[in-house]
Design a protein that fits this description.
Helix content of chain A: 55-70%
Order of helices and strands of chain A: EHHHHHEHHHHEHHHHE
Number of helices of chain A: 13
Shape of chain B: globular
Strand order of the largest sheet of chain A: 1-4
Largest interface: A-B, 19 and 33 residues
Number of helices of chain B: 11
Oligomer: heterodimer
Radius of gyration of chain B: 19 Å
Structural class of chain A: mainly alpha
Largest sheet of chain B: 6 strands, mixed
Radius of gyration of chain A: 22 Å
Strand content of chain B: 15-25%
Number of strands of chain B: 10
Shape of chain A: globular
Strand order of the largest sheet of chain B: 6-7-8-3-9-10
Amino acid sequence: MGKEGLRKERLDRGIKVRTDRVYAISGWREISYLLIPRLALIVGLLSLPIVFITVPYWQRVVSIICIYALLALGFDFLAHYVGLVSLGGAFFIGVGGYGAALLNTELGLPPFLTIPIATLAGAAVCTVLFWPCLPLRGVYFAIVTLMYPLLLARVIEALDVLGGTDGIIGVDGFANKWMEQYLLVGGLLILLFFLRRLVTEDIGLVFRGVKDNDQAVKASGISITTYKAVAVYITSALGCLAGACLAHIYMWAGISQFALDFSIIPIAATVVGGAGTLVGPVIGCLILVPISELLRDFGTLRIAVYALILMAFVVFKSEGIMVYCTRKYHQFERWVSI
Amino acid sequence: MTSDPILRAHELSKAFGGVQALSMVSFELYPGDVLGVIGPNGSGKTTLVNCITGFVKSDSGDVYFKGKRITNLPPHKIAGMGVTRTFQIMRPYYSLSAYKNLVIPLFSPRARRTGGWRGGGKLGSRDTVAVDILEEIGFERDSYVPYKLASALPTGYLKRLELARCLALRPEIIICDEVFSGLSMSEMASMVPLIERLQMEGISLVMIEHRLRELFRVANRVMVLNFGLKLLEGVPEEVVKDERVKEAYFGSEEVFGYV
């Protein structure tokens, strides 16, 4: 008994009349069809800190997930909507972290001031430092940006500035853990929807134009360097926000914030979650970071198991979870006789 | 020609390694002109476009637009002044639909200032203006064509899209790099009135072309390049009769004698 005489049929479900942004909605059924996935993400993320109320360790993991998710979001935006593959995630974390720590310890500013200042000013610093590499494309941009965090870490170590290898200690923590958690979860959600909106606006089209065909953008009277810089500013602001929060969570800023983890795990999360979807990388972090925590029991084998899981994802679901799930949600398949 | 030239190139030169792609090319473009540029392959036509529009930095020489020196300015500045170009190898944004392709030039500072071609100064919605421009240039508004992905459009429409991208900037000069190449006879036939209309609306054109029959229908002056040198310039009727032009295209009598 096989599948002879049968044919697989794939049907679209849901709202038939739709273009990029405009939906023809005719009832509650269709509204809920649109809202359920979004609400699942929002409610799911917001409830995470409450779910883990009895296990403070995992509440901290939720914060770390958000920090990686902010980086992954920025990476996905920059790589798949502007065409700049940046491996400098750790650089953004480091600048944001050191910025917040310095503002806090030297000037005595409270966290609710240091975080926004470190985010906006740190992003400006990152953009200025990245400016020379903006004309680069593809793998060249990736290599140069990978050098930035390594370079800055070595400079701090060699010159023994900014606390040297000890880092900056004595940074204020958050007033309470709820503030920490909901600042990160809420910020992540707001920024996720902000970026999703941005890429469909006209300025988002210019970003996609820079990725698709930068010569034509130049011929249209638009400076590609300016728009690349704007995109790098947005991305580094996400990273610096994550770094500033990290410094306040650990109450410390040090060289390990330039660690390669912050550059690599966001990319892995993007691969797992689905490149170019913006939500995908967040979901990728929700999977990868807890796995990484659970694997701590394996000791040094942890990295090996982690690598195997990643390889399995790349081989069997290279499109990413988000792309796969979106397809399954919009279509259903059934066998019909011919 | 009583008025001042709108575009003037003065002794432009450019070498790529040992190859002199352009040497001391000068020409003038007057308002309302359609200047044809012809020459065999490798004679420096596309290099000339690239030098004027800033995509390639020229080694020496100057370009003036309305008396203002624009030599070697960055491409987006030159385009922003109203000197636009099309590409020989079409460069649409393949992942965007046809009308979204126009939203990007309509977002540029120049288009926001001028409102785009016939946009009327104020941009209500760039999408609407984009569809308007596409309709003007031969995309049927009520069909699905303007909403198709650029990667799914046939060559004829892509060539029009290249022109539309220039028009979105409300240009004063369009430099066309082979708009007729790759088109079918009927597509070319419908392109000619379009070029004539642009000229009527006061846009000056420089047309680089291999399709001489169509070019001579629209051009009022023709410049011939060979090995990066300007061979001659004149009205189409004289140029086709010139011995030097025949020699450039078909080789000289002596060469044939040796074979």
